[in-house]
Design goal:
alpha/beta; 25% helix; 6 helices; five-stranded mixed β-sheet; 174 residues
Length: 174
């Protein structure tokens, strides 16, 4: 992998999101347009507006102006952004330490729980669903239906919330 800057609008290129419901175009980092393959590697955490940051919400990091999405309909815009046709090879969710409150940054050590988990899938809706169910074990006041971008993504054909229908492998390490 190669670390690249993204702190200037000149690194971003306008792309169309024709399958988007409310968000039809955006500026994405040009490195993603030029690469052969990319991986989406979010950290599982609480988020005030989206309720949870995971694979689908992590797409906001490839977008130039995230503030715009918060002013339209954040939950739908997250799903719309995930309609961009160049999909990651894999979504790898880091849930080793999970920010359970005061996201996206937290206020102190009490906001973090050592959960020692990792989720991976090619399906962003499924990996977010599994992560949300896991998240709900430490944050019981947020349900899957509260994280509307997951259901919105399923409606857009981005994946499934029916993780029981998938071939899920659970690996325990000591």
């Amino acid at each position: 992998g190669k670390m690249i800057p993204g702190n200037d609008e000149s690194y971003y290129v306008e792309v169309e999101l024709p399958a988007g419901v409310k968000f039809k175009s955006t500026k994405l980092h040009k490195a993603l347009l030029e690469c052969d393959v990319w991986f989406n590697m979010p950290v599982l955490k609480h988020h005030g507006g989206a309720k949870m940051t995971c694979a689908m919400k992590n797409y906001l990091g490839i977008n130039w102006d995230r503030r715009v999405l918060h002013n339209i309909d954040l939950q739908q815009c997250i799903a719309d952004l995930n309609t961009w046709p160049k999909k990651p090879a894999l979504h790898i969710v880091d849930a080793y330490r999970t920010l359970k409150a005061n996201g996206p940054q937290g206020k102190g050590p009490d906001d973090v729980v050592l959960t020692k988990a990792l989720f991976a899938s090619q399906d962003p809706v499924a990996v977010d669903t599994a992560s949300a169910k896991f998240f709900n074990q430490i944050r019981t006041d947020i349900s899957l239906s509260d994280i509307r971008h997951i259901g919105n993504g399923e409606k857009l054909g981005l994946g499934t919330t029916n993780i029981d229908s998938l071939n899920v492998k659970r690996i325990t390490m000591s």
